[in-house]
């Protein structure tokens, strides 16, 4: 069976995920939500975004949750939501940027998903996130420095993901198909172990 993203037809087969989900991790602006949605179409799986799910359940925006309850409460809620999403059958999961920093969340994702780190450089991230003021951590006097600090702190942890795909200003379909190719290789190798 061949898979296609939009008009582009690429790749001979769909990865055999053996019931696992695919979870995208990485920093704010890397494209987890945007690419995740496209990837879900290609893999014919449901797409769930943990930030959107948190907003739906709480009926509050992420910014309002941070303001009303503080970051630690948000993180606790996020860990519960990601676990529930991951345990609930195969899908593509777009995680919030900080979700993978939680050790219990990493464990849940190890058990239920193939994790992909969408890696991006500072300029790309800043270009992307500067368009909308929806990310509370970046409502700071020097958001670029905040992002650099997050890169320093988080990249060694994101590096624990099963696969790394470089995010860049390429078509969403192109990045999604790179992920499919990486998944095919990864799953084929796992199956032969
Ligand atoms: N390949 C791409 N080409 C052009 N724009 C893109 C691409 N991928 C994402 N974007 C844009 O970059 C912005 C950030 O993307 P997105 O919201 O998917 O990031 P995210 O990783 O989910 O961030 P967060 O952790 O804050 O949820 C969005 O405006 C999106 O439209
Ligand atoms: O990187 C982060 O810590 C965050 C990323 C977003 O997805 C949201 O989950 C929130 O703005 C926090
Ligand atoms: Mg997102």
Automatic annotation (TrEMBL):
Substrate binds at residues 51, 75, 97, 154. ATP binds at residues 29-34, 135. Its EC number is 2.7.1.71. Mg(2+) binds at residue 33. GO terms for cellular component: cytosol. Binds 1 Mg(2+) ion per subunit. It is found in: Cytoplasm. Pathway: Metabolic intermediate biosynthesis; chorismate biosynthesis; chorismate from D-erythrose 4-phosphate and phosphoenolpyruvate: step 5/7. Pfam families: SKI. Its cofactor is Mg(2+). Keywords: Amino-acid biosynthesis, Aromatic amino acid biosynthesis, ATP-binding, Cytoplasm, Kinase, Magnesium, Metal-binding, Nucleotide-binding, Transferase. GO terms for biological process: amino acid biosynthetic process; aromatic amino acid family biosynthetic process; chorismate biosynthetic process. GO terms for molecular function: ATP binding; magnesium ion binding; shikimate kinase activity. It comes from the Bacteria. It catalyses: shikimate + ATP = 3-phosphoshikimate + ADP + H(+). Belongs to the shikimate kinase family. Monomer. Catalyzes the specific phosphorylation of the 3-hydroxyl group of shikimic acid using ATP as a cosubstrate. This is Shikimate kinase. The lineage of its organism: Bacteria, Pseudomonadati, Pseudomonadota, Alphaproteobacteria, Hyphomicrobiales. The gene is aroK.
């Amino acid at each position: 069976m061949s898979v296609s993203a939009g008009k582009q037809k690429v790749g001979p087969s769909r990865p055999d995920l053996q019931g696992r989900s695919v979870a995208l991790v990485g920093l704010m602006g890397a494209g987890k939500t945007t690419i995740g949605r496209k990837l879900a179409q290609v893999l014919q799986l449901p797409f769930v975004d943990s930030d959107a799910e948190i907003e739906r359940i709480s009926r509050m925006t992420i910014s309002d949750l941070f303001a009303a309850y503080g970051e630690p409460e948000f993180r606790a809620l996020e860990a519960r939501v990601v676990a529930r999403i991951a345990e609930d059958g195969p899908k593509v999961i777009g995680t919030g940027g900080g979700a993978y920093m939680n050790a219990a969340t990493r464990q849940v994702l190890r058990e239920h998903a193939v994790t992909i780190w969408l890696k991006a450089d500072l300029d790309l991230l800043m270009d992307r996130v500067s368009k909308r003021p929806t990310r509370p951590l970046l409502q700071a006097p020097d958001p670029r420095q905040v992002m650099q600090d997050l890169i320093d702190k988080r990249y060694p942890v994101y590096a624990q993901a099963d696969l790394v795909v470089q995010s860049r200003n390429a078509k969403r379909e192109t990045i999604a198909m790179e992920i499919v190719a990486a998944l095919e290789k990864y799953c084929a190798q796992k199956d032969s172990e």
